[in-house]
């Protein structure tokens, strides 16, 4: 069996994505972290940022995660966040509008949220 | 139509329309329970994962966090009571209020001052009528609470817990809500959120002796303290969110049951009133017949006399 890890991407009010993966990259408060199967047990605080999951069938799942936690133990990885949006759920035009608005209001948190959404949706890292 | 019959007919008509209303409310509540139950189920993965993470940090690190350690002399406690905005749900709100009263009495007996936080118009009205002090209250979302509502409720509570007791903070945080057991059973219960009692935080850890569910040694990113600092507010929010959702489901279930018995009672009432109305109508007819017969007899007698 190829090495794989089980991923649960969970938002406060729903289970967003779950499945097998070979690599998960997420952004913690101290920088990006990549988790592969057999990683040491880990518990970290996530920053607003895109999460990239490389699935076992070669596909890639990208999601925008706004705050939350990453925990890994026994080859099970869970990503918890209050708000999680999969890349294909994100309305790019709306995110762009939100970004404009946040910039004009100088609302740093909203600007960051909109940026993360755009990064996740357009795949530009 | 006799006067008596008319009165019965009028009452039957009014009860029939009441029955229609209660029946409609019953059906609406029944459809909402399903939705509320689904929401509870959808929020469970997050809550379980979060609880596991909290347990992992709390057991895996030796540091003492103010939110996990019990104060030596707890002097003040916060009680969050969750009731409904609307009535007509049987004993739903009053059961929750009763549970909160019992908890408050117990805490007071232990020598703690109690700060009350109330969700739902019914609870606010109860405290307002009795002129009790309510530290903070929220209304308007008990039907279908969102995560943002839970965040809003949790914010002042977390702030109160992290504050020093001397400056108006609290040592303990309790929550009173109605647990949704099944369509037929809902229990009002109280629960201590903070300080964390570890046996509750990880319900799975009871199995530790059996050799599984041993917490691995975690690597904390950036540090155990920071992780715990970030985790605990989320944990409180998620517990409050879960309590709000369960309460909403319980409210709908309680309302469905109350409206079902109201509909049943209306049916019984209509049945017995119909019997009475029939009786009265029959009595009217009998009287009319005997009047006609009596009149005819009198006429015949009079005619026979004149002949």
TrEMBL record, chain A:
InterPro entries: ATP_synth_F1_dsu/esu, ATP_synth_F1_dsu/esu_N, ATPsynth_dsu/esu_N. Its main location: membrane. It is found in: Cell membrane. This is ATP synthase epsilon chain. F-type ATPases have 2 components, CF(1) - the catalytic core - and CF(0) - the membrane proton channel. CF(1) has five subunits: alpha(3), beta(3), gamma(1), delta(1), epsilon(1). CF(0) has three main subunits: a, b and c. The keyword Coiled coil applies. The lineage of its organism: Bacteria, Bacillati, Actinomycetota, Actinomycetes, Kitasatosporales. Residues 5-82 form the ATP synthase F1 complex delta/epsilon subunit N-terminal domain. The gene is atpC.
TrEMBL record, chain B:
It is found in: Cell membrane; Membrane. SUPFAM superfamilies: ATP synthase (F1-ATPase), gamma subunit (SSF52943). The keyword Membrane applies. It is a peripheral membrane protein. InterPro entries: ATP_synth_F1_ATPase_gsu, ATP_synth_F1_gsu, ATP_synth_F1_gsu_CS. The keyword S-adenosyl-L-methionine does not apply. Keywords: ATP synthesis, Cell membrane, CF(1), Hydrogen ion transport, Ion transport, Membrane, Transport. It holds the Pfam family ATP-synt. F-type ATPases have 2 components, CF(1) - the catalytic core - and CF(0) - the membrane proton channel. CF(1) has five subunits: alpha(3), beta(3), gamma(1), delta(1), epsilon(1). CF(0) has three main subunits: a, b and c. Produces ATP from ADP in the presence of a proton gradient across the membrane. The gamma chain is believed to be important in regulating ATPase activity and the flow of protons through the CF(0) complex. Belongs to the ATPase gamma chain family. This is ATP synthase gamma chain. It comes from Streptomyces lycii. The lineage of its organism: Bacteria, Bacillati, Actinomycetota, Actinomycetes, Kitasatosporales.
């Amino acid at each position: 069996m190829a090495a794989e890890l089980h991923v649960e991407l969970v938002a406060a009010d729903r289970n967003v994505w779950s499945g097998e993966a070979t690599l998960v990259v997420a952004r913690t408060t101290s920088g990006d972290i990549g988790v592969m199967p057999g990683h040491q047990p880990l518990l970290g605080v996530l920053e607003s940022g895109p999460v990239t999951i490389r699935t076992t069938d070669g596909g890639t799942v990208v999601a925008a995660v706004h705050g939350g936690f990453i925990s890994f133990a026994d080859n099970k990885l869970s990503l918890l966040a209050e708000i999680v949006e999969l890349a294909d759920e994100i309305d790019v035009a709306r995110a762009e509008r939100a970004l404009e608005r946040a910039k004009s209001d100088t609302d740093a948190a909203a600007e960051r949220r909109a940026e993360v959404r755009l990064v996740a949706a357009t795949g530009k890292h | 139509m006799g006067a008596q019959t008319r009165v019965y007919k009028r009452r039957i008509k009014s009860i029939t329309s009441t029955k229609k209303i209660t029946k409609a409310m019953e059906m609406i509540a029944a459809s909402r329970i399903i939705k509320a139950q689904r929401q509870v189920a959808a929020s469970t993965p997050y809550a379980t994962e979060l609880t596991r993470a909290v347990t992992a940090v709390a057991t895996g690190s030796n540091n003492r966090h103010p939110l996990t350690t019990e104060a030596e002399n707890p002097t003040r406690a916060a009680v969050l009571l969750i009731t409904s905005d609307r009535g007509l749900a049987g004993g739903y709100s009053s059961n929750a209020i009763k549970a909160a009263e019992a908890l408050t009495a117990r805490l007071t007996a232990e020598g703690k001052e109690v700060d009350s936080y109330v969700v739902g118009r019914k609870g606010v009205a109860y405290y307002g009528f009795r002129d009790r002090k309510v530290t903070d209250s929220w209304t308007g979302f008990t039907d279908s609470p969102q995560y943002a509502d839970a965040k809003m409720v949790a914010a002042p509570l977390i702030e109160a817990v992290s504050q020093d007791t001397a400056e108006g903070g609290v040592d303990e945080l309790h929550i009173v809500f109605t647990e949704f057991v099944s369509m037929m059973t809902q229990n009002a219960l109280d629960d201590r959120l903070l300080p964390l009692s570890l046996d509750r935080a990880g319900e799975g850890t009871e199995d530790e002796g059996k050799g599984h569910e041993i917490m691995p040694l975690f690597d904390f990113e950036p540090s155990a303290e920071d992780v715990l600092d970030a985790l605990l507010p989320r944990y409180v929010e998620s517990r409050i969110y879960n309590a709000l959702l369960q309460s909403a489901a319980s409210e709908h279930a309680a309302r469905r049951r109350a409206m079902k018995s109201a509909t049943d009672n209306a049916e019984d009432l209509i049945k017995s009133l119909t019997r009475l109305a029939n009786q009265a109508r029959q009595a009217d007819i009998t009287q009319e017949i005997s009047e006609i017969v009596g009149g005819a007899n009198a006429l015949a007698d009079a005619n026979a006399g004149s002949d």
